[in-house]
Design a protein that fits this description.
Strand content: 15-25%
Strand order of the largest sheet: 1-3-2
Number of strands: 8
Low-confidence stretches: 1-62
Mean pLDDT: 67
Radius of gyration: 25 Å
Number of domains: 3
Order of helices and strands: EHEEHEEEEEHHH
Number of helices: 5
CATH architecture of the largest domain: 2-Layer Sandwich
Shape: elongated
Distance between the termini: 81 Å
């Protein structure tokens, strides 16, 4: 649950604001306190989000922050935003499945968000994990997904459907999962054992030499 305190500060009080709250600027939702700033003519709007622990759930003063208000504040002020000429505005938000900086897929503004990512387990082993975050009092859930195209995609779809996620988010999650599996395959091709590489190069040279001999015989 979230506690909302919106402060409208004139430039006269700007020093107090910048002194007391800088360490919380642009922190991830799951980590604690979050502060966003947006210029509003000659005033500054500060949204202070305090993530309440479970034993404060029943407090009547605690209320949920509207998603549209949150999006208004973060759409142009997030540290995750990536801009390039002649391309859509992108974002590196952990819970954004498409990478597009839009309210529809925002991992910061939406009540429900999900992410598919790679986590290392030991030196060599890598796990594909599905993280689900419902911003209504529940913690994030991380689940390891099988590295099998059919089984993994089915598992992603089943988990998101069970938790009531939108169909477009489910489709985006399965696409991202498939893209991660493809990246594993391409990485394996690039990192080849030196002995294997030497053997394959020798075989290729032998084939080339044999084809050259056949052409001369003809």
């Amino acid at each position: 649950m979230l506690e909302l305190v919106a402060l409208f500060l004139t430039p006269f009080y700007a020093k107090i604001n910048s002194f007391s709250l800088p360490q919380y600027h642009h922190r991830e939702p799951s980590l604690g306190t979050l502060v966003f700033r947006e210029g509003c003519y000659n005033h500054e709007v500060v949204l202070y989000l305090n993530f309440i622990s479970n034993h404060h759930k029943n407090n009547k003063m605690v209320r949920e922050v509207p998603s549209d208000l949150l999006w208004t504040l973060v759409r142009n002020n997030s540290s995750f935003i990536k801009k390039q000429k002649e391309l859509p505005v992108m974002t590196s938000e952990p819970q954004n499945l498409t990478g597009l900086n839009s309210f529809k897929y925002s991992g910061l503004a939406n009540k429900k968000s999900a992410g598919v990512s790679v986590k290392k387990s030991g030196e060599k082993k890598e796990l594909v994990t599905l993280s689900m975050f419902v911003k209504k009092g529940s913690a994030s859930l991380n689940t390891a997904i099988a590295k099998n195209p059919k089984k993994g995609s089915a598992m992603v779809e089943k988990l998101l459907t069970k938790n009531g996620y939108r169909r477009d988010l489910i489709g985006a999650a399965t696409k991202k999962y498939s893209a991660i599996l493809k990246s594993f395959k391409s990485a394996k091709k690039q990192v080849m054992n030196p002995r294997t590489a030497a053997r394959k190069a020798k075989e290729a040279a032998a084939k080339k030499a044999a084809s050259g001999v056949d052409e001369e015989a003809d």
